[in-house]
Each structure stands twice: as C-alpha cells, then as structure tokens.
Amino acid sequence: xxxxxxxxxxxxxxxxxxxxxxxxxxxxxxxxxxxxxxxxxxxxxxxxxxxxxxxxxxxxxxxxxxxxxxxxxxxxxxxxxxxxxxxxxxxxxxxxxxxxxxxxxxxxxxxxxxxxxxxxxxxxxxxxxxxxxxxxxxxxxxxxxxxxxxxxxxxxxxxxxxxxxxxxxxxxxxxxxxxxxxxxxxxxxxxxxxxxxxxxxxxxxxxxxxxxxxxxxxxxxxxxxxxxxxxxxxxxxxxxxxxxxxxxxxxxxxxxxxxxxxxxxxxxxxxxxxxxxxxxxxxxxxxxxxxxxxxxxxxxxxxxxxxxxxxxxxxxxxxxxxxxxxxxxxxxxx
Length: 334
What we know:
By secondary structure, the chain is of the alpha/beta class. The chain has helices at residues 2-23, 27-44, 49-69, 75-91, 127-138, 157-170, 283-286, and strands spanning 97-105, 112-117, 143-146, 179-181, 200-202, 207-210, 215-218, 238-241, 256-259, 268-269, 273-274, 291-293, 299-302, 323-331. Helix 1 packs parallel to helix 3.
C-alpha cells in the first residue's frame, strides 16, 4: 500500500511539473525535485531505509525520465537514466557471471573443485533460478557450499510452494565430497526443510566435518558475525563458510573463508565500489568478484550472490552482476 500511495502521489507530481514546465522555461526540474522531496518525506517518513531506496529508484528511473522527456530542452538528459534503469532492473539482475579462481593449499593431497552459492534470495523460483542451478550441476563440482538466504518468504503455504519448486533443482546435484548449507538473515525457522530429499546437508549449528582431503566448518548466521567464531585449527586444509563475512575480522585459523550476504552492494560505482554492504568488513572485501589475501594469512572470497533483496527493497543491480563462484583448490607444489 505505501508503494501504491507513493506512486499515485508522484503521478500527481509528474502532471503538475509537466504543466509548470510548459508554462515557465526551466521550471520542470526545479518543480519535480521540490515536490519529490515533500512527497517522499510525507509518504516514507519514519519508514525503513529500503523503502526510501525504492522511492528514490522510482524517481530516478521512472518519474524523472517522464518529466525530462516532456520538456524539449531536457529530453537528452532522460536517455542515460532510461539506459541505466534498463540495465539495473532488467539486464543485470539475471545476467549471471561465473567466477573461477585457483588456490594452491599446503597439505592438500588432491585437487578439489569447490562451488560457492550465496544468496539465492528469491520469492519465486523460476527460470532464472533453474538456469543457475542447472549451471551449477553441469559444472560437476566436487564440493558445494551454500552460504544462506534462500527463499525470502515467511513460513506458510507460499514458502512451501517455492520450496517444492526448489528441491527438484537441488536434487540434480551429485558432488563427490558433498553439499552443505548454512542459514542466512532472511531464512525462516523451517529453512532446513528446503533441502529435504536432496543431497544437501543443512547445518543448523556451527559444524566441522572432515571430508578427506580437507576440513570444512559451517557457521550459523550469528557465529558468522561473532568476534570469536567457533573455528579451531585443523591438521588439514581448512575451509570455513558463513553467511556474513564479518567473522574474517577475527582471523580464524583457516586457509579459505567463504561468505555472501553483501550482494556486492547490488549497486557499485566506479572508483568507489558498493554503496551499501551491511557488513563490518572493508568495502573492498565485501564487493565480491575477487579473492582477498588476508593480512593474517589465508584468503577470503565474498560472493556477490545470485538473487537480490526482496520485500520493500528495489530489485536492481548496477555494475554488480550476480555470480556463481568456483574455486579450484590444488596441492601447493614444494
């Protein structure tokens, strides 16, 4: 309802500004900005930050281009906004990228192809999610780690309906070392049932398992933000996965730390990076897209994720494509 009220109010702003622009040269943009500020404050005052972000995105990529196109002297200014809006809302959110890294590890006795899947974060499992999980399965990884945030719906019939659509896609996985999942922020209490009848093991507590060539620790969402996560030194190469990347600040004894949560910011700007990460780690760590060599040793890889924030947040990505992450772990040559 707030979204509808906001856009109805902005429609009135559009009409008023267009009329003013026709009568007074240069009045168009001044009128729209002034009325936007008042309407946004009226509708969203005291509301959550994601709602305000949604309001700003509608202004920039819907209402303002309409206003600019209605005024001959400002029509050229509308074109960049329309192109950015097209990319951010239509193209990038489903323009999946695949990132592959090679990481030599001391003590590793055989190569292991690891796949990191973070933030599927959908409210409707459809063709895009199907394509992502089919690409994951066809890559035939040895080990799959899911870093949380799967279906962003409250428990109930809608959640169960989407879980029923997701399970057959997960059932196609057959990694030789297994597939494991930890929880994220948006996952409701019954999140482990998403993996019922699939090869994926859901860890509801922080857990460490020996998989033969390496050891894997999965953290709960709270432990992934803890200044003292329950990670102990291991005699074998050690991989730790958690939802949020903040646990990397604790310098846990491990060779490779994996996380999601940040979505790479969803919006990144050249020379600046992500505008918002909701994480305590440095912006460069949270941006995703690359392997970070940590000061204390070991490496961190934060995924930009597969999906996007739902609910009241704007569903867009800009200069921040979704990604599947593959890491080729290989024995370190003497």
